[in-house]
Amino acid sequence: MIKQLVSVCLALSAVVTFSSCEHHRGSGHIVTENHSITEFTRLSVGGQFDVEYTQAPAGNLEISGDDNLMKYVEISNDGGELSIKMRKGGWFDIHKNFTIKVSSAQLEEMNLAGSGHMRFMNDFKGDHRLKTAIAGAGSISGKIDVPEFDAEIAGAGTYNIAGQTRKASISVMGSGDFNGYDLLTEDTQANIAGSGNVHVTASRTLRADIAGSGDVRYKGSPEVSSSIGGSGSVRKG
């Protein structure tokens, strides 16, 4: 999943790089549009979008942003995946990030590419594994209650997560930060490649693998095992 997100992020960067791309400047006049949607379990967002996700029956997607750039936003819901992104082939100088308000009864996967933000607006509860990923400098935040939780960062992204899960898998490639002291876990696996930081709470086991100068800080009294290549460290926070 993270490889796909990296590809998306690189593609977004390439759009800005090539001078042949059309330049679209936001008007600064913010408008709101509504779209009817059906239920989805996967949410993928690429670009400058701030997403407010609420766990509730799906039905409406609300988007706010520059009026002259609305036509370049592509929204699709196919096979249970809701995708929100900017049309390819343009360089968008927006007044501020688009704001998306959306809901679904359940969510299994959440992917963010670019500099946007995703926030759980209410306490998310599920009986399945929740997979999330950030590629770029975006952020994901909120409170969850799921049996298993995966969080991946490629770049300088940030997580601020609270709640509880039995098993957590955290992966950071780059300089990202996972702030999860308020996420109560039983077993946690933390992998860092680079200078990232992972803060977790575990009650039973913690496995940390570090390549680089990254640091893992933990709370609780888990059985700790680690493998460190570089100047990274694992210690109680």
TrEMBL record:
InterPro entries: DUF2807. Gene3D superfamilies: 2.160.20.120. Residues 39-222 form the Putative auto-transporter adhesin head GIN domain. Pfam families: DUF2807. It comes from the Bacteria. This is Putative auto-transporter adhesin head GIN domain-containing protein. It comes from Chitinophaga parva.
